[in-house]
Each structure stands twice: as C-alpha cells, then as structure tokens.
Amino acid sequence: MEHTDRRDTEPESAPAADPTAEPAAADGDQPGPGPRRTRLRRVRRITLAVLFILLVPLLTAETALRVNYMGDPADGTHTRDRDAIWLGHAWVDGRKDDADLAAFARRVKATGIRDLYVHTGPMEHDGTLPEALYPRARWLIDAVHREMPGVRVQAFLGDVLATESPDGMRLEKAATRAAVVDSARQVLDVGYDGVHLDLEPLHSGDRNYLSLLDDVRAVTRERDAQLSVAAHQIDPLPGFHSFWGTVAGHPKWWSQKFFGQVARRVDQIAVMSYDTMQPLESLYGGYVAQQTSLALEATPPTTHLLMGLPFYHENRFGHWAHAETVAAAVRGVRLGLSRTDADRERFGVAAYIDFAATEQDWTSYREGWVR
Q1: Considering the domain boundaries, does residue 174 fall inside one?
Q2: CB 4 within 8 A of CB 37
Q3: Which of 139, 215, 287, 304 could serve as a FRET partner for 186 with CA atoms 20 to 30 Å apart?
C-alpha cells in the first residue's frame, strides 16, 4: 500500500507526522486503510500460528515414521504358513468355475495362504443374510478342500454400520445382533470353516460389538469353526481416534485397549493396514511397522494376528497407490515383527483383494514375505 505524506498540510507548530502513518478516519467515516492493514496483519499472524501448530506435530510424526522404516528386519521374519486373502463375491455367485479355482490353486501353491475370506454377504441392515447371495458356496468349499488341502474357507460377512449416517446396521438393537448370530449359523450349516466379520465404520469402545463377538464365538466354538474379524487400525498416538472424530467426524482408529478386547474374543484378527493417508512409500512402510508393533502388543499369543497387504490400486483421499505398495507393507510388517515379537507363531499377512491384484503384488508378497 502507498503511504500518504501529510507534512505539507500540517501547521508549522505541530510535530512532524510519521511518514509511515495512515490518515485517521473522520468521525462517522469508515475505518481507513490503516486499521484494515492492521487487521490483515493480525489475520496473517493467526493463520501462520495455526499452520505452525498443525504442521510441526505432523512433520514430527512423519519424520518418526520415516525413521521407523529404517534398519534391517531380523532373520526368520517370514511367513509362518498362516497367511490369508480376501476373495470377491464372484467365487460364490456363479461367475467362477473349476478352471478359475485350478488357476487360483496354482497361484497360491507354495505360499503361506491357509485361510480364504470369501465375500458371502453383505448382510441386510437387520442382520439377516439372503441365501440367494451365495448359490455356489457349497461348490467352492468342496473344491477348495479337494484341490487345496489344509486351506480353510471362511464366510466374509459385512455391512455398513449406522455410526456415521442414518442408514446401516444398528448393533445397539438386540434383535439385530441375534440375527447376525443366526447368519453365522446359516453359513456354517453350508459347510464354511469359519465366519469372518467386517462391520464398518466401527467406533472404538463399542460394547455392543464385543457382546456380538461373544455370542458368535459361542456358535463357532460349538461347531469347531473359526471366528475372524477385520479390524480398524490402532491409534498412532494415544487418543487419536477421539481427535480425528472431532476434526473429521470419522474416528477410524481404535484404541489399543479396545483392539486387545476384540482380539481376546476371536480366533483371528486381521488389521486393515491400508488406506493410511501416507503420501510416500517409506512413510507407509514406517506406519505399517508401527501398526504391527501396536497390534502385537495388544494381541494375546493365542489369537492369530494378521496384517493387511494392499492388493489393490486406487488413488483417492486416504490411499495413494504409489505409496501403499505390497513391498513397503511387507517390509514394514517384518520390521514391526522384528522389534516386538520376532518369534510370534500365530502371525501372518492378509491380502486385500484377489480380483484387483497385479503380478507385481504377488511377486512382492512372494519375494518379501514367503521367500
């Protein structure tokens, strides 16, 4: 802004005006450029202070993740032959056949994959499961048992929860939870080796979910079947889910305590360690290493822990395909395992998802984890 020089109009007896001063506003006039400039400066200072407050912790956290990705994994941190993969609905609705299964069996031969989470739902919002959704389930189960001895087929049952929108499943309703338990019985009657629940978005501390797990596990134990769940990520900082819920309305993380409460109620817990918002491969790998350590600390050794691998390629908010690679995830898993519990027996990785996987994904899994 150009400054106005008022010295020529001032009386000689008056003190010389500051050449940088702005003219004062006359009574009844709007504030002049001086007050406006002051306000602008104040807004700039406040904006810079807010950015500083937000960016410094963020940069510190990202630097910590980069450091967490450094170092070498311990010897022996490879597959324990307890890995899993999520499979799409085409395997049970009639789109897949014997030739597809034979090709898939060749694909996973000599890997550590021993559990298939086959999409069999989704369940209705009331917890029921239409039988028409999985007409070829019996074929798949029999074919896998015949062609892939030792591999289990679990029914992947999911639904959207009404936690962040008015539509979805409401676990606070006892009738809904009872219907989910009946759906678990329903798929076990078909011959599935287990039930895999994926209910999202599931907020940390949900007591109704814990009650549901207790009831479903009573059924799976009675049938000598598996109960597994897809789990949200763990707070990277204490209480982070509460902070993010306030800021974004989507508290996607679980507290480590709640993660442990879930882990103690199931046979298998698979962490969805993708969609992390990390922009670089090294930061993503460091994040997975951190998540692996946190999950190992919270999971009892009697529960089978799996860390998710991103076998899909999308570019959107929360997931960058160039950063969230299988190679980075595997290295992160090995680093976290090395630092926390290198000899954990009930441990593996779980790939999401078969129909989006590339040859590079499979190669990275084999070379990095299977060896």
Answers
A1: yes
A2: no
A3: 304
Closest among 326, 351, 212, 276 to 65, alpha carbons compared: 276
Which residue in the block uniquely carries the two structure tokens 């150009």?
2
Position 351 in a domain: yes
Contacts of 320 (CB under 8 A, 6+ apart): 278, 279
Q: Which tokens belong to 38? A: 């002051």
Q: What is the CA radius of gyration of the chain?
A: 28
**Considering its fold, how many domains does the chain have in total?**
1
191 found inside a domain: yes
Give the span between the Cα atoms of 168 and 124, in whole angstroms.
Answer: 9
**Rounded to whole angstroms, what are the CA distances from 298 to 52, 102, 138, 249, 304?**
34, 38, 36, 26, 12
pLDDT in tens, the chain (371 residues): 444 343 344 443 334 444 444 444 444 445 556 777 788 777 777 776 665 555 455 556 667 776 889 999 999 999 999 999 999 999 999 999 999 999 999 999 999 999 999 999 999 999 999 999 999 999 999 999 999 999 999 999 999 999 999 999 999 999 999 999 999 999 999 999 999 999 999 999 999 999 999 999 999 999 999 999 999 999 998 776 666 556 657 778 999 999 999 999 999 999 999 999 999 999 999 999 999 999 999 999 999 999 999 999 999 989 999 999 999 999 999 999 999 999 999 999 999 999 999 999 999 999 999 98
In terms of pTM, does the model score above 0.85? no
Concatenate the DSSP letters of all residues of 168-200 into one string. Answer: SB-TT-HHHHHHHHHHHHHHHHHT-SEEEEEEE
Amino acid code (one letter) for 363: T
Domain span at residue 229 reads 83-370
